[in-house]
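BUG: 3D viewer hangs when loading the predicted structure for this chain

Environment: internal workstation, default settings.
Expected: structure renders.
Actual: progress bar stalls at 90%.

Input used:
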Amino acid sequence: MIIFQAILIFLIFLACVVLMMTRKLPTILALPVMAIAIAFAAGIPFISSDTATFTIAKDVLEAGAMRMSTAIAGLIFGGWFGKVLTKCGVTHTIIRKAAELAGDRPLPIALAFLAVSSIIFAASNGLGMIILVGTIIIPIMISAGVEPLTSGLVVLLANGIGVTFSVGTLGVYIDTLGLPLETVTSYSWLCGAPLIVVAVLLLVYLIQFKGKFRKAWAMPANAQLGSEKNVRAIALISPIIPVVLVFAFKMPLVPAIMIGIVVTLLLSTPKNVVQVVSSGFVEGIQETAGAAALMIGIGMALKTVMAPEVATILEPVIKGIIPANAFVFVLVFGLLSFLAIYRGPLNVWGLGSGIVALLAASGMNPIAAMVALRLDSNVQAVCDPTNSHNVWVSDFTKTDVNDIIKKTIVWIMVSTFVGLIIASIFVY
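Structure tokens produced before the viewer hung:
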């Protein structure tokens, strides 16, 4: 019976992967469906008069919806912070200063925008911020002679780097693996540094050695750099305030972001503070609603795979695939890092959260599981054609979204291998 249930559960996993990859079922629906289906396959009752019994209604649906509360709060407050930065003029000023310093030289301007965009995305990320930054910097880079696809890659690479250090997304790993904030933040540089190095090398290769491009670009009206006044220079430190508070002073996510908002307001002194704060909060919620809903589905999936009934069925299989040493750890999570795309089993925003939670529950070092998931998520953040920001970048630059993955997949997988090799020294 247990063998039959195990096969059925893996078939459900596979079916959900196929449905998400073929875009027949959006991830936001696939995860709750998978959670309920696996629970039924494991024999978990929908409801029970015994309050101590693990049920679908009480534990999977209700408790699962709250499982990722730390991550959801971090997302919402991060979205709020990003809106405040934009409304106060900090984001535009940073981009404007970078453009002025780099001039019209293709490589310097691309690297300058990679750096400043990474800082901006570390403060706040999501499709709204991608669009805001992209509509400004992509036309500038194209006008300076950077190819449209390469210009779009600058935005995607910066997003991947920024997400690694984003205080708003750290809660995913805290909630998924039960690790303390200090542990998650202490490995951020290990996960981010290889991606930074590879991103720079990729841009140098594409711009210096693949030839230059020259084209006029009709910049959108809302992307005009001269349309707003610069904020005072001291206000430009605002985006890194929450990052410093979390990484250096080990402050919890929400208060760190709230202090960042207050500092931004004090340093930039917008005319209507109340309007900036209130509208920023509402718009921040609107922009993070999709990701928050996705996290609710992730929470339901986590509650299901961590249920005693499911764990009992899958534990023998999961134990057999836990990396026994550093070599296997690097080989498995390096070669299979492409499974992070298309909402695959190594995607923290898809099935990956449930997989690594099971691995950790079955005996794998949770820190090793966290590092592997974060490094593999770099592949997802930059390359995945199902990402809304990849689709937007390809549409804005008039390129094929599949060309993005062709240009980047090998490079980002190399950065993942490097990170895994370094990590294996510390976790094995």
